Amino acid sequence: MASINYRLSSDAIFPAQIQDCKAAVRFLRANAAKYRLDPERIAVMGDSAGAHLAALLATTSDVTIWDTPGMPNAAVSSKVLALVALAPPISVFDGPAEPALAKLLGCASVAACPDKVKEASPLGYLTPDDPPVLLLQGSDDPTVDPENARMFAEALVRTGVPVTYRVMPGAVHVDDPAYHSAQITGLAADFLERMMNGPPASGAASDFEFARFAPDQYIALFGGYFGNQQVLPDPGPLPATLDGFSVDVRDSTGATQEAGLFALLPGQLNLLLPAGLAAGTARLTVLRNGQTERTEEVNIADEAPTLFATYVNGAALAIGQAIWVDAAGKQQQQSLVTENGSQLQMAALPFSQAMGPVTVVLYGTGLGTGKSVVAYLGHLRLLVEYAGKQGTYEGLDQYNIEIPHEEEGTGPQTLSISVDGNPGTPVRLLN
Length: 431
Prior knowledge:
The chain has 7 helices and 27 strands. It is an alpha+beta fold. β16 and β17 form a beta hairpin.
């Protein structure tokens, strides 16, 4: 592990900081043999201002506008394999951090230099070949507006860059203990381990998160060898074989079980991991007619909560229902996502029809053995009425979360959950 030191705004204004970061990666790559490094396996991680620079570094490997004559190792690539960004200021440059950012850019105020702001934001450099990203944010961050992380995550999705975006309910800035918990450090380690061993060929079937999975979780495997056919199983227990394909799962104790298969799609096989898998590294073996097609190692944790969402313009819209009691005392419900012509959109929660709070019912997978579920809407902690198995479909989790009537008219907000300290998929709701 190498720690980069870069010039602060008190010593030099932007782009000195990104120049230093690029120089550091180039130095490591140029001297890989000397320091016994693999020059092809370099990842970058940062928090707060460091996360901004790490994100800029990860998205500008082919950008040379900041190179200067005589720069050391200028011909060496600054490309990185993966990015872990904790609470990065990306483009929402207001609030308590605004004076420091203005000083960094050499401006009287952020509003006074829009061109500099654009140059310093990773959003302007995104391309589909950028490295995968783990993006972590506290919902109650008073220093860096959580909208930064959301906007970055949605831009990455729109661009086609793999991203695991997680919001920690109730957490503030990067000095919050949540960032240093075993759950978050473990998530970052699992993410980096998977990336260092080559591009992952699997992800959660709900949001395609790929750092870690849980027993009894739906996941998706990807590969051209799955062909272009679509095969769905008959109703009933999930079969171990679909069109000749099967998947063996060998957990960290050496026990091997067959996965249940629920969809063979073009280039994709969806399956349910066996319940009772031991935590640790598991090996997935894909077989076709009994012959090994591919093997992949994945990380198994007790919980890896994810929510099913549909993505519209990069935003994760919650899949589920809103339930409420109307003036006649009757229970009503509606979908959280509706169609507007050919476009999907968030449906506003029906507070005007409800005599009290509205309960949103969300569906997910990966709850595992989790017991303590926390949910926030923006900065507001919510009542979790139920979190557990959905009951009808194996492997499917259900969350019933109460949204108070006072949230009516507050507009789109991010709902974040965590299970025993493990953050799940953030989704958008319209109040």
